[in-house]
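FORM 12-B: Structure-to-Sequence Request
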């Protein structure tokens, strides 16, 4: 930290700091929004639903205010144990926050999923903000009607209309939350943008490539864990990761013809990790068949999820 920036650190008694939980249906754009506000990729994003599986914190600063955005898994009607863990985690994150931002995909509008979300949200006595996202895809009069329709169901303190993708009006959101954080010392150093350990971020990056490369049930039938992280003398890093799948035939699809799929996943993940770490990365992916990994508490711990009984 330079002398100038340490002089600019707030002294402590007049600072504000708090948590904003961003909740919403899967694919609403929560992770995209956190990344945009923080100004760096802290949470993975794909076009598929249920990408985020645990709470991911992205930290932003505005003047003397530190705002900790909590990206959450999308909320939907859970079926499997993993789904339940994700949805429980999302609601847990919401209840522990100082303020809740509900993100709604404005193009999709209000469907059953949003109706259920609004019903549960109505019972939570925390400041709430409605964020209509993806305004780049929707006409203005549709947005106004949607804002009104939702506010008639649950009273929000404020409504914002943003595009998380291109950053349209996302600064207004940060300004608003910064102005509504409780008094208190900053919880993270000023240069910290996420509290996710590197090993876990590395697993997430590989998982993102799995989601982008493979289809149907495969991304949902798998999880990625970083098992080894070794700094080499030449400055490069050797990372070993395990991808757990449920069945042999899933392993075959993961591998692809002549190992084509796993190679593509590995290359994409390695490239991004290399950029992130600013050094050469040697990435080794191992696929393990573990029939009941979705019922194994250890896998949930690794993901940062509570194991639902
Ligand atoms: N056009 C447009 N697309 C967006 C916008 N925000 C997000 N997206 C896209 O929506 C898709 C889902 O984005 P995510 O950020 O992964 O959504 P999420 O809410 O975190 O999804 P889950 O983690 O599955 O709950 C991605 O393809 C994004 O590029 C936006 O403002 N405009
Ligand atoms: Mg997400």
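FORM 12-B RESPONSE
SEQUENCE OUT:
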């Amino acid at each position: 930290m330079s002398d100038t920036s340490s002089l600019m650190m707030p002294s402590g008694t007049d600072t504000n700091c708090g948590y904003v939980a961003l909740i919403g249906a899967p694919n609403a754009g929560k992770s995209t929004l956190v990344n945009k506000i923080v100004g760096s990729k802290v949470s993975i994003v794909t076009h598929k639903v249920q990408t985020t599986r645990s709470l991911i914190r992205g930290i932003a600063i505005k003047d003397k205010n530190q705002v900790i955005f909590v990206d959450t898994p999308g909320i939907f009607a859970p079926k499997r144990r993993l789904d339940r863990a994700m949805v429980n985690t999302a609601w847990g994150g919401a209840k522990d926050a100082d303020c809740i931002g509900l993100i709604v995909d404005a193009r999709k509008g209000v469907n059953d999923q949003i109706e259920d979300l609004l019903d549960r949200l109505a019972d939570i006595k925390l400041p709430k903000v409605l964020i209509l996202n993806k305004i780049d895809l929707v006409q203005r009069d549709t947005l106004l009607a949607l804002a009104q329709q939702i506010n008639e169901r649950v009273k929000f303190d404020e409504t914002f209309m943003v595009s998380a993708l291109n950053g349209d009006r996302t600064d207004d959101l940060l300004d608003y939350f910064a102005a509504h954080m409780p008094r208190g010392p900053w919880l993270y150093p000023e240069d910290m943008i996420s509290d996710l350990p590197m090993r876990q971020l590395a697993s997430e990056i590989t998982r993102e490539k799995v989601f982008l490369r493979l289809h149907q049930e495969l991304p949902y039938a798998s999880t990625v864990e970083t098992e080894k992280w070794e700094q080499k003398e030449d400055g490069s890093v050797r990372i070993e990761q395990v991808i757990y799948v449920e069945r042999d035939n899933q392993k075959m699809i993961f591998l692809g013809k002549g190992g084509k799929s796993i190679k593509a996943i590995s290359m994409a993940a390695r490239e991004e990790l290399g950029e992130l770490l600013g050094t050469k990365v040697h990435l080794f992916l191992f696929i393990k068949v573990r029939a009941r990994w979705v019922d194994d508490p250890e896998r949930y711990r690794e993901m940062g999820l509570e194991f639902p009984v």
